[in-house]
Amino acid sequence: MSDNTNDVIYLTPAGHKRLEEELQYLTTARRQEIAARIRDSKEHGEFSEDNSELDEVKFEQAMVEGRIVDLKSVLANAQVITPEDVSTKEVTIGSLVQLANTKSKDEFKVMVVSSIEADPDEDRISTESPLGEAIFGKKKGDKVTVEAPAGKITYEIKGLAKGVK
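-> structure tokens emitted (165 positions)
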């Protein structure tokens, strides 16, 4: 997440919904689960100085509260992108980009999203990732070179579409 709380965070509709659902779950069900575990510890007199279970629950509570603060900040600064916001002339957030490795000729598609929505397993890459940074603002036919663990890889942008529906 950005250090500047006034920065706009662009989210897809699905990403915005996922974050809202996570916030709802954490502020209702998860908080109640943790409170119940703390109450159970109190009822069973488990408040000794060396209570690792209680320490664990309090740590978990702090993590949940921290995540709630983060989610509220993201959602307060979020702008949900629509298909009309996504260009098919150049790579922007929400673009579905077809890429080809210029050496192996392997082709694949990625959707460009903000870092909060990135999920490489789902082919959703962040604008802050090396590949996302390299292709952002580029057009069909452009070639970009990315530093990868295996060395430099050059990709050609074969096509652009609106990834947001």
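The first strand starts at residue 9 and ends at 11.
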